Amino acid sequence: MKDRFNLYRFASPATFYPLAGALIPWFVAVSVVFGLAGLWLGMLVAPTDFQQGEGYRIIFIHVPASWMSMFIYLVMAGWAAIGLAFNTRLSGMMAQALAPTGALMAFLSLWTGALWGKPMWGAWWVWDARLTSELILLFLYIGYMALTAAIDDVKRADKAGGLLLLVGVVNIPIIYFSVKWWNTLHQGSSVNLTKSSMAETMLWGMLLMAMCFWMYAIAVALMRVRTIMLERERHTDWVKAELAGGEK
Amino acid sequence: MSPQSSAATSNWPCDVRPTSSRHCFFVIVVSLFPLGIGPEPDLLRKLAPGVLWVAALLATMLSLPRMFADDHRDGTLEQLALAPHPLGLVVTGKVIAHWLVSGLPLALIAPVLGIQFDLSADALIVLTGAILLGTPALSGIGAIGAALTLGLRGGGVLLSLLVLPLYIPVLIFGAGAVDATVSGLGERATCHCSPHLPLPHLASPPGHRPPP
Q1: CA A241, CA B36: separation in Å to the nearest integer?
Q2: ∠ CA(B70), CA(B76), CA(B78), 5° rounding?
Q3: Does residue A11 form part of some domain?
Q4: Assigned domain for B208 exists
Q5: CB contact, 8 Å: A154 with chain B?
Q6: Does the residue A236 lie in any domain?
Q7: Is pTM, for the whole model, over 0.90?
């Protein structure tokens, strides 16, 4: 019972702001540690792939970025659902704070995928189901950011953005499967994405990098949400006190 | 009179006016493609499903900003929201009205344009059926976008950014059904999926109160 009380206490921006500030260095540190370990394992320890040579090592950026791009969208939709159901202020801010990181991850995933695809498949881009749905995910992120940026009233921005996120979540499986069926109807199996079974070190390197990206995403989102809080709550006493304290 | 049908009929006068221009847009865009690509019938037959469907999406999208805008401006929307009828039902009425003046005429024009692309009779029937089945989903998804961007600056461009990615499944199944008929695979390959598409979207109209 005490734990629940504590959790609810942090739903208020005034109490969450210092908590986020205290947590950020930890997440940054953990992210750096995981990143160094992952890069060491991925770049130095993992064996060279017998088919793809050294070029495959971009997987250690590509796969974590793709995972995070999808995961962040789900987290945003979760915040949106909480915000719409319970009318909490913090959830809209969290969703908005996560959006640029999610878009960055989707973009990274597409970009590294293109760099990987050129030497391996001989093409920067193919209209494969995964590539296409990742591109659409990037469009959804951009749409969300554009919508929330276009609305001045923050309450309405949160609400509209939240609805869009939830509609997007319903649509993502539909889009994914439609793209997949469409692709198989046209192209057959000219592009085969199935990988050979991975060496254990490669898998561990990838998981470590995914943790690094995850912690990075949390750290950056917390930094961004702190700025959003200051901006939105600038008329309140605690923000004034915070800003006055910062100047001294 | 049910709230649904009254919302649908009250839309007629203000929705019918821009109708002709939005369908002229459809005809012109589709006619531009043979001019840009060249008149080879084989190529045109192959491109026709995609071109017709993309043009249908764009034509539908052009008309979306007006779905709630006029009612929002003169306060009708507030009255509708205050009315005792469930708001979802009223919005469904709006979606139906939008489809009647937007999607239905598109489905009637499409076979004529399909003839320009040398489509066979079978393909024309499937094309009309696919547009008839797909456009309600376009109106339904579009209603969400129109409600979210209501009264915003640059709402029209924003609307396209929000709505077009969500239109992709309709485009794929719609064009896929026609494409399968053209290439002789049989329309059943994709057609069985299409009727289900509008359902989730019609079931979730925006429960979004108009902004003050």
Answers
A1: 64
A2: 115
A3: no
A4: no
A5: no
A6: no
A7: no
DSSP state of A53: B
| Substitution target from B141, B158, B166, B173 for chain A, most A beta carbons within 10 A | B166
Q: Is residue A1 part of a domain?
A: no
Rounded CA gap, B81 and B183, in Å? 49
**Is B52 a member of any domain?**
yes
How many domains are contained in chain B? 1
Rounded-to-integer distance, Cα A168 and Cα A140, Å: 7
Q: Is B172 on the interface with A (CB under 8 A)?
A: yes
Task: Determine whether A223 is exposed, middle or buried from the number of CB atoms within 10 Å of its CB (0-12, 13-18, 19+).
Answer: middle
Residue B211 within a domain: no
Domain containing residue B33: 3-203
Inter-chain residue contact A164 with B158, CB threshold 8 Å: no
- Domain for residue A23, yes or no? yes
Domain count, chain A: 1
- List chain B pLDDT tens, one digit each, 212 residues: 455 555 555 555 444 555 578 888 999 999 999 899 888 888 888 889 999 999 999 999 988 888 888 888 888 888 888 888 888 888 899 999 999 988 899 999 999 999 988 888 888 999 999 999 999 999 999 999 998 988 887 778 889 899 999 998 888 888 888 888 887 766 555 544 444 454 444 434 444 444 43
Apex A179 CA angle, A112 and B125, nearest 5? 150
Q: Which domain holds residue A154?
A: 16-230
In a domain, B67, yes or no: yes
CA distance B172 to B169: 5
**If we measure between CA atoms, which residue out of A212, A209, A211, A203 comes closest to residue A49?**
A203
